[in-house]
Amino acid sequence: MKLKVMLVDDEINIIRNLQKVISWEAMQLELVGMASNGSMALELAQEHNPDLILSDIRMPVMDGITMLQRLREQGFQGEVIMLTGFQEFDYARSAIKYGAKDYIVKPIDYDELQQVIERLSGELRSKFAGRERDSNRWKQLSGIAYEKVLLDALMNCPAGISRQLLDVGSIKWNNTRFILYVIDLDDYSQLTVQDERERRLMHFAVRNVLQEVLLDDCPDYSVLQMREGEWCLLAAEERSLGKPSGQLRHWAERMQQAVERYTRLSVSIGVYPALLSLEELSGAYRSAKQAMRLSLQAKYIEIFGERAEAVHSVSSFWTMADGLVAALLQGDQEKAHELLERLLRELAEPSSLQAEPMLHFLSIHLLREMRSVGILTAEQEQTLWLELNGSRHIKLLVQTIYRIASECANGSAGNSRKSIELLMACAKDYIHRNVTRDLGVEELACHLGISTSYFSQLFKQHFEETFVEYVTRQRIELAKTLLSSSGKSVTQIGKLVGYAERRYFTKVFHKHEGMSPSEYREYLSQPSSCPSDSSPLNSSR
Q1: What domains appear along the chain, each with residue ranges and CATH number?
Q2: pLDDT over 70 for what percent of the chain?
């Protein structure tokens, strides 16, 4: 890294000697300007923004002390070495209060000066490296906080400390508007019968693709997993007008093509084209989620506003559906039965939407919501998903929905031990959806509505390891899969699983596996140890 240097002295011979005698190139220093007085130096400093200035004190027009004072007033952050005659020694010392780093008495001892320059340039490089590290940490922290604010807004939760953190930075929430995409995995009911590990890898692969596909056209966007098989993509816009519907549809098609190409899965996408404020995201997400799947057609694209009646026609249906979910979670079988009867009566009306796709989607919605809180056992879930996949007619779908409601209501009507299991199931689901970003106990406790100490105690009792140990293990397992099935570099994989610095990622990985990530990948490449992994995770380009 080269540092920029300016020389300021009214004696041309001293300027020439400084140019020739000091080993600027060897010290990775570049002379960017020479001035004969302080006034000229101020203009050059504004143009070149030097890191180091060597300046005489006694000069015509403007002396070195005044120049230094003006530089500091203008916000100059570099270092200054003062050159002074012996009789001006006390005067030179007064420059210290304006931030002069050192001073050299004339006649100049060039060996001494070179040592001073070497020392200061080393200090400057250390300072700049520290600033860069701090900047990278802030970017990482602000990126995490930014996504947390968006997730809170979508879920209609208070943003808390994340919003406060970003309010002191450069983000102006009042001026920020978003385009909302809701991406839903097609054939979710068939894919969900996979084991938990395969499902997590599938979700990771899809999110990885979505995070990269629009970077050329829209560098400022975030992808958040809302629940299993569903993501939100939020594209930030500074302009007062949104994108034309043709552009929005083109982006949706690119997402579908990329997901299919790299994961061999298909998705349907709903787009909310109006520019949304942070406070409007929750309502828009709810409307988009409710209205987008009116068809069982794969790779479906819905741009809301093109069919405004679609959103309106399902609002009462989804109000009842949400009430049904709440009743099931509370174990209120009577209320759940009443709401289910009303839902089925509404779907039986001649003016209603297609009953079959709505019943199918209602079944998926109920099972998704119950999975996120662990109401059902793995065996119950497997049976219900298989039953749903075999229900191709309205009568069978109705029977399946009654079966789901009955199992869920019975499952949630347990004792306090069941409540603890639900809390830990929610925590597990939240961790797995956010494992690639920085997670803290406070965030999980806030999400569950309990104290941090109580959460830590419950977590350790339930999982038999601490929260940090659990999160680290999940990240390492994900990294191992990527090392075995992806062509990405170790640094890229470290970042993907939540470690910004390769060195720290390698240290944690070695602690868990007894070898570095590179050694692990090399070990897997040996024919006798290479696992058979057909997971569609290799999204490297």
Answers
A1: 3-130 (3.40.50.2300), 176-307 (3.30.70.270), 327-414 (no CATH), 419-525 (1.10.10.60)
A2: 76
